[in-house]
Every structure is written in structure tokens, then in C-alpha cells.
Amino acid sequence: MKSVAIVGASLAGAKAAEALRDEGFDGQIRLIGAETELPYERPPLSKGYLTGTADRDSVFVKSADWYDTAKIELELGTEVRAIERDGHRLLLDAGRTVEYDKLLLTTGSQVRKLDVLGGDLDGVHYLRTLADSDSLRESIANSRSIVIIGAGWIGLEVAAAARAADVAVTMVDPATLPLVRVLGSEVAEMFAALHRSHGVDLRLEMGVSELVGDGTRVSGVRLTDGTVVDADAVVVGVGITPRTQLADECGLVVDNGVMVDESLKCSDPDIFAAGDVANAFHTFYGTHVRLEHWANALNQPKVAAQSMLGKSVSYDRLPYFFSDQYDLGLEYTGYVSGNAYDEVVFRGDKDSFEFIAFWCREKRVLAGINVNVWDVTESIKTLIKSRQAVDPKRLADPAIGLDELI
What we know:
Layout: E1 3-7, H1 11-22, E2 28-32, H2 48-51, H3 64-69, E3 72-75, E4 80-84, E5 89-92, E6 97-99, E7 102-105, E8 109-111, E9 124-125, H4 130-141, E10 145-149, H5 153-164, E11 168-173, H6 180-183, H7 185-197, E12 201-204, E13 208-213, E14 218-223, E15 228-230, E16 233-236, E17 240-242, H8 245-249, E18 258-260, E19 271-273, E20 278-282, E21 287-289, H9 294-308, E22 320-325, E23 328-334, E24 343-349, E25 354-361, E26 364-371, H10 377-386, H11 392-396
Helix pairs in contact: 1-9
């Protein structure tokens, strides 16, 4: 193998280029991205960078000098128009072509757009890129009130950032509770209590029928009950979808992302995928799993790099993500699909937002979330991987160490 092309100059793309060099690959590496910024991490965009506690340079994966030193050909502001699999070529904008021996897709995801009247008014924000975060920072600094449409992770973190700036926040979501589809009602009710305690006006079981304004700039949100909520700005966080167009058009197998095996190889043996776009077979769960988690973008690229180099590897890390809201920090480990659990066991004080919750099925731990409780992630992983039944009373008892349960 003489050349690798990576499409998507993201965290996953940059980490893959780094891993290839760390693994001893000395051939050509092209890292191609549509954005003009150096590859960066996305969590700060709704956390520290948005609130102003982290500076701009801290979001970048590597400095510009690093790419030069590592001999990574970084092509920013460049669109890949098509993948020509038979010729092992990429068709770029302006008619240029790039040849590859192996190709890695780290194209990530794109935001779902709100399809209502007024959705194109100025002052309506989405949060996916560094430029989006820059724009939203400025808007929060110059607003007295905002409406957030969508009570998912992005919406909740933006709400916390806005309240920290003393901006009035109204949050609208058709669900019964924030994150209820992800966490279930047992834990989701805690997030409703947290945000209400910080003055967020939650309008749950409510939809949006229209964004209103003067024809140019948004000034409010009309809800499905006819109420209009005034807003100097609107933030839309209604989910993301994987960027699979290139994969679709060149005939790769796509189903809720680019389908890859445990080594992150696509249906074409010379093409791989990692990060948000990859629907990867997970050996622990025995099924394909696509997760929009920072940890996947951080850790999958090493496996993809090793796989491209012909090593027998598999990505089997348990899913993990984290969130910061107000003075609450949390880590989530594991995976629960739909209503696959039959019990949630709490350890600690849920009312004071200092606890661990475990999603269990037949007394086996499927996932755990530690809220303002630290240094327990490895123990939670061990419980999950053991697949052993655990007495719920012992699981709930903070006097018994997690490592004593198996």
C-alpha cells in the first residue's frame, strides 16, 4: 500500500492520519475536508468554547505544524464529489482527481433542518461546526431570551450556556421529558428537574408550527397550541443524520450509516469508515451499532488504520460519552437499545444530582451513568462486560464497592 485518502478532515480523520504514522506507514496520506478550519473536536462547541471557558486553539486536534511534520497532505475547503471505486479515484471539485490504495470515510453527520415557515430567518442557529459555535456565542452575548427547539444533549448544553450568561431560555420538545427516548423516564426526569431549577421554561409535549419575525429576522416561535414565545434568537437541535451520500452514490452498503464490519471495513475491501458515519458491527453486542459519540471518533480511527494496514483487529470498546451542564458532570457507559432494560437501579442521591444509575435486564447491567460521581467508569465497564447477574439491593448500596459486586 502506497497511498491512503481520508475523506472528512474531522477528529476521526485527523486521528486516523496520526494512527497511520504511529503504526509505521510511510506512504502518502491525504486528509481532505470541506471546512476551512483545521480538524477540531466538537464537544467544546456546546461546552467550554461556547461558554468562553476554553479558548479557540484548544478545540483543534493538532496544530498546523504537526500536519507538515507528519507529512500529511491536508486539503481543506475541498469537496469530494464522487468515489470511483473501479479506478480507486476520488473526484474533487474543479475536476481534480486523487488516487488511493485505501480509502477511509470520516464524513461525520449533518444537522436535521427544521421544516417550518420562517425556518430560514436570521437569528436561527444550528450547532454542528466551529463557525456555528462562533455565531451562537455572539448571539447569546447579545440576547435577552432564546428559544431552544429540541431537548436533546445539544439543546440541554446550550440551555446551560445561555443561563450561565443570564439569558432567559424556553425549551420546546414534543417528548414528555428531555432525553426520554435515550435514557427512559427514570433518569430523564432528573434532567427536567435540573433545568427547571436553573430557570429554564420547559414546554414539553409541545411542537413548533412556525418561526415568526419581520420577514428578515426571527422574533419568536409559534407553538402548536397557538402560543407565541418571544425570542431574540432560536437554536434548533433536532438531531443529526450521517453523511452517506458519497457511499450511497458509489454503491457501498448503507443502512443508517455506512455498514462496516468489526474491523471497520466496508462492503468494498479497500474502503473503511469511522466515526458518526460508521454503522459498525460490535462483537460484544453481536449487532451493528452506529453511535454519534465523541469517543467513537476518537478511538475508532486507530482500529481503522491498523485494519487498512492488514492487521487483524476489531473495535470492541463499550460506548461512552460525557456531558457538562451547569455544575453537573456526567459520564455514560454502555448501550441500551429502546426498552431493552427492565429495571433502573439508583445508587446515591438522585435529588441532589449525585448518583449512579444502572440500566439492567434480568439483573445484568447493560449501561451506567455516573452523575457528579467520579472514577467509576472502569468499574461500570467491568460490570457490563461480566454479564453477571447482580443483586439490585447490593448494586444500590453505596457502602458496597462496585468492584465487590462480581
